[in-house]
Amino acid sequence: MAKIELTDHYIKRLSVDVRTDIADAREPGLTLRITPSGSKSWAVRCRSADGTSQRVTLGQYPDISLKDARSRAALAKADIRATEGNLNQVRREAALAGSADPTLAKLIEEYENGPGMLRVTWKRSKRNMHSESRNRIGTVFAALLERRVSEITDDNFSDTMTNYEPLSGAEKANGQVSRARANLMAVLDWSAGRGRFRTAGKRRKPTLKVADLRDTHDPAADDETITGKRDRVLSVDELQLVLPLLKYPAPPSLRMRMKSDEDVRPIALRFILLTSARLNEVVVAKWRHVDFDARTWHKPVVKSVRGGTRSQTLPIPDAALELLTSLPGYAARADDPDRLVFPSSHGTELENWERITGAIKRESQTASWHRHDLRRTSATIMRAIGIDLSTIDRILGHKTAYRREETSPALDAYLSDIALDDIAEDPQRSALEKLADVYKRIELRPETPVG
Questions:
Q1: Is the pLDDT of residue 297 over 80?
Q2: How far apart are CA 175 and CA 164, in angstroms?
Q3: How many CB atoms lie within 10 A of CB 2?
């Protein structure tokens, strides 16, 4: 087996004709497996306490970066050396021992470490804490976590949602309860082999007889304060008030605890407007995902309503590129490509979005809009200026109806793999350039006189 001090530059450009394992010279035991199809995965080779040689898989590249793989390898080797026999077998036996009738908490943990690993909201934080979805379920359904899942009825789930009291002290939290319900529904469907988990290989083994949350009421379904937001877009007058606040450094008038030259949340919201991206896509964006030469932003994982996760490479407009070059991490991006584009002051993923959004609403004297409405606003503007629906679908990362267009999925390969600028501009880039121009015109528009 070849041994090389791996680098991201080397890994990205690596291709093989037959399956090949390469050992990392810097972290003993860490190996990279690459296949002719281009799949690249990390694993650790090590001997356990009784001398058993074994291989433990860590995950796929680039979902797990080289830096993260080295850290995980060190932890995995410690687990292997402390185990008598094969660690994979020990883990399987432990899982089977509690698989017949697990507690709700254990079942959620299984899902987080299984199918949930392919979902953005189920991804663990860098500190190896619980995922966003697991935390949300744990908050709303805390009273049921230690009960055997087979004993929990749909009435139990319904009563828990109805009686939930938000920790914030607010009168109700139907949105939070609804999201927790949706997250938990996926877990229960997987365990029972229902819905998108019906087919063999996708459902849990063994399957369980558990309640179906479709038989419970979704508290958000008849909450007008939630359903009313789903069609909300910001008007031109509102955008004229909001846009000047979406800059870096953050305006002092927002009165945030974070220093203005460290707070990139307002400029991140402008980036959402310019790219029509989801907030969670922006939060996890790393400098290695941005190709300034190709003027593209690669998203390793985008939300998918149907099927597994997908990736997306989005052409980004010049205004978005200029925004990125103004950020404090731009100059050091080559030295630390795994650094977040929009980090907190501690270099971690940004949080406290409710606080910054509230401050922007206060200073702009606007109300009743949510961060996701920025994405919807951009999509609406593009449609208003004549951008076709299929191009908007691609920009939003939605599944494209190729049959409706009478085209093939190969269309996206042509757009991303062939330099067509001298023949025809990428329609996504053209659309986003026009969108950026609209925002520029709105921001420069004379203020409407009062009275």
A1: yes
A2: 12
A3: 9
